[in-house]
Amino acid sequence: MHVVVAGGHGRVALAVSRLLTARGRRVSGLIRRPEQAADVRAAGAVPVLLDLATATVEQFAGLLTGADAVLYAAGAGLGETPDRASPVDRDSALALADAAQLVGVRRYVMLSSMGADPHSHYPKDPLVERYLRAKGEADENLLSRPSLDCTVLRPAWFRDGPGTGLVRLAAATGMGEVDRADTAAVLVALLNAPATAGRTLELVSGDTPVDEAVAALADPLDP
User: Fold this and answer.
1) What stretches pass through the bilayer (predicted)?
2) What is the Cα–Cα distance from 215 to 37, expressed in whole angstroms?
3) Is a pLDDT exceeding 60 seen at residue 222?
């Protein structure tokens, strides 16, 4: 299995790479800066230098040829373009999806954010509102594509703990927190669970082992 990870230097993405490569999977981590390459290699992945904000569909397609799945784990957060939705939080996720469709890669897992919504209203902080809207617009677009088996994961506020291996994963969980390590484990499980395609899932710490939580949602009888 070959997985292409966009935002390959992020803390969750690096944890995903370590988990996947430990299982014998091949991982390509897309990074923006050359100095990030050593960390990506240390996680077992192959670093690929590419600026997501400016990359074309054709460039993405060249990198996806022969891949089995895509994990979009990039995010500019609240920073670089205060006057418009970030190209990293929305536009490049959709361009990467265009490329996946072009070369026939069906499995696409989107690491989004709890509260993402195209109609998000957050008057206390316009930057947060733009960020959540951009993520929500990307999520909605990705899930509307019949030629993609896309699952959207919206984790709660991140913690830097070692992970408990126990989570709550559902269409709606309520607010909470979750370790980055547990988020990475859920993403790895979702990459191998295409039956979860078409779903938007929220994630918080809980009391269900990761594999069981994902397997329950992959069951077609699960509501």
Assistant:
1) none
2) 34
3) no
**109-121 pLDDT, tens per residue?**
999 999 999 888 7
Domains and CATH numbers, the chain: 2-218 (3.40.50.720)
SS (HEC) of the chain: CEEEEECCCCHHHHHHHHHHHHCCCEEEEEECCHHHHHHHHHCCCEEEECCCCCCCHHHHHHHHCCCCEEEECCCCCCCCCCCCCCHHHHHHHHHHHHHHHHHCCCEEEEECCCCCCCCCCCCCCHHHHHHHHHHHHHHHHHHCCCCCEEEEEEECEEECCCCCCEEEEECCCCCCEEEHHHHHHHHHHHHCCHHHCCCEEEEEECCEEHHHHHHHHHCCCCC
From residue 178, how far is each of 18, 156, 173, 192, 222 by CA, in Å?
19, 6, 12, 21, 23
**Do β-strands 208-209 and 177-179 pair in parallel, antiparallel, or remain unpaired?**
unpaired
List the structure tokens of 99: 């490329």
Residue-wise pLDDT tens digits, 46-70: 999 999 999 999 999 999 999 999 9
Going by pLDDT thresholds of 50, 70 and 90, the confidence category of residue 127 is confident
47's tokens? 């670093």
CA dist 150 and 100 (Å) reads: 11
Kindly report the pTM of this predicted structure.
0.93
